[in-house]
Amino acid sequence: MNNAHEHGGWTISEIERLTGLPRRDIQRCCYSGKGGLGIIKPQDSTWGRRTYSACDVATLFVVRLEKQQGLSLPEIGDKLRKRPAIGSEAEPGLLAVHIARLKEQQEEVAGQLLAARALLMASQGAEPLLAGELVENEIDAQVIEALRKMADEEAEQIDEHADRVACRGWLLRSFAPLAGAAHFSEASERAALALAGAIDSIHERYNVAHVAAKKILNWAFTAPGMSVVVDVWLGPGTYELLLRTLH
Question: What is the C-alpha to C-alpha distance for residues 8 and 10, in angstroms, rounded to an integer?
């Protein structure tokens, strides 16, 4: 183990690897003089080299993310002086802001992947039931995530319920009658029954109130990509019908 680690920090070469920033940018973030930003203060070790702390790494990681958004180093420096990378519970720092943004991007990409898979199935003449299985997998994942958001303190209980996801078919059984509805009034009636069945299933499977089950289902159906895969499964216009009925 080298001396940087003995002092509880990282060397600049390691920081380059960890953050993806070039050495010149890292050095500019340290200097307070002309051309420098002075936004981090690495410690000088007894053996004559600077070591960087976890907070320094976090700040430099934010610098990289801000550069990817098109900001210059001076602009990033001004931004970080007004709002640090690591904030508090009362006012989250820029790193927390980027985490939220990256999660949104992750959800959007996952939705595009879901829609693309459903469209590929449809264009290749696959059975609509395969799209239904995609819907059910996604709804199950969304339900688990929603439950975690609603009550972190019940995480252990939710984990116990998670293995029930392996028992597929609850959503497919609820919504399969919607496929091929003869006319709008019949489709509306079937949609109401399908949604009621799904809400009952969530209520029974996860031991939550019916009102909470409806909110969870609504949240799951509005996930990115869901509109495409539902219509591929149950037919054009079904997603809008379900969403109107659910509200």
Answer: 7
